[in-house]
Amino acid sequence: MKDKILILLFLNLFSLTIAKGERIRESKESASHVVVGEVTKVFKSDGKDYVGYVVRIKVEMFEKGTGPAKGHHFYVECFERKPHEGPGRPAPGASGHSGVPKVGERVRIFTNESNAINLGVYPTWYDVLPSVDKE
Asked: What is the pLDDT of residue 134?
């Protein structure tokens, strides 16, 4: 019985490594958090097939969910797939988020919390908003 469980666990883990297709699309309405604020920093992590980002937002307000108070920072993660280079077809995988906001932009972000990490809803996770006069 123990061997069967180990085999099933191995097959499950193996299938996760080879079945990397497109992610399921999420709607903005499904977000657990909706935050309005200004992008103050974008951290970039370059990988083999993907570029990962952590976007720091200075909170103006929460429209949904709870988090840091106004003026404090909220962090959200997203990624983009790198363009395929070389011969053959690219490996199967998610195509990435629709973009990354720029530092200084005022945005409304839509995220889902997963294991204490805020992930942008997939693939379209933010709206650029008009800037406001700073007092």
From this structure: 62
